[in-house]
């Protein structure tokens, strides 16, 4: 992903927007890996990359990626 890191944006709302843009870009490049739901995405992140997930949640001021993605 080429944009700013979600953690570096500076505000919860900005981080949430950066996350949505980065995720949309990634999904466009990897449609075969698209999770069925935001909850599935959250569960996969918790299992496979919990530190990155926690960092993103802290930056977006949310308790789950499902919440962060709306």
Note down, in words, how this protein is organized.
It is globular, with a radius of gyration of 11 Å. The protein contains four helices and no strands. The model has no long low-confidence stretch (mean pLDDT 82). The chain has one domain (9-68). It is an all-alpha fold.
Features:
single chain, 70 residues, mainly alpha, globular
Summary of the model, kept short:
This protein has 70 residues and is mainly α. The chain has helices at 12-29, 38-48, 50-60, 65-68. It has 4 helices and no strands.
Q: What is the element string, with H for helices and E for strands?
A: HHHH
Largest sheet: none
Give the termini separation: 21 Å
Number of domains: 1
Q: Would you identify the regions where 5 or more consecutive residues have pLDDT less than 50?
A: none
| Helical percentage | 55-70%
- The overall pLDDT, averaged over residues, is 82
Q: What coarse outline follows from CA principal-axis ratios?
A: globular
Radius of gyration: 11 Å
The structure class reads mainly alpha
Helix count equals 4
The proportion of residues in beta strands is: under 5%
Number of strands: 0
